[in-house]
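Before we proceed, please read the two lines closing this message. Tell me what the C-alpha cell row says about the fold.
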Amino acid sequence: MSRLPMIISRMTGAAGRVSGLAGQILEDRLELLALELREAKIRLVQAWLLACIGVVFSMLGLLLLVLAGVYILPPEWKIYGLVTAAATSLLAGVITFIALSRHLGQKPLAFEQSLAELKKDLTCFSTKN
C-alpha cells in the first residue's frame, strides 16, 4: 500500500512534465503562426500597392489615348507625342500587373510553415513506441 502513493506521485509528475512540454510546443506554434500572419499582411499590402499603381498607370494611359484622339492640332508632331505618352503609360501599367501576378504566384501559401510543423507534431505523437 505504501507504493501506491509513490506511483501516483510519479504519474502526476510525468503528467505535469508532459503538459509543460505541450504548453511549450503550443507556445512555439502560436509564435510561428503570428510571424506568418505578419508576413501574409506585408505581402497583402505589397500586392495592393502594386495593383493600385497598375490601375493608376492604366487609367493614365487610357486618358492620354482619349486626349490624343480628341486633341488634334495642326502640328503633326503633337499627336505623335501624345500617342507615345499614352503607349508608355499603358506599357508601365501592363508591366506593373505582370509584376503583381509574379509576386502573387511566387509566394508560398499563408501559414505553410505552421501547417508543416503541426503535421510533424502529429506524426511524432501518433507513432506507437
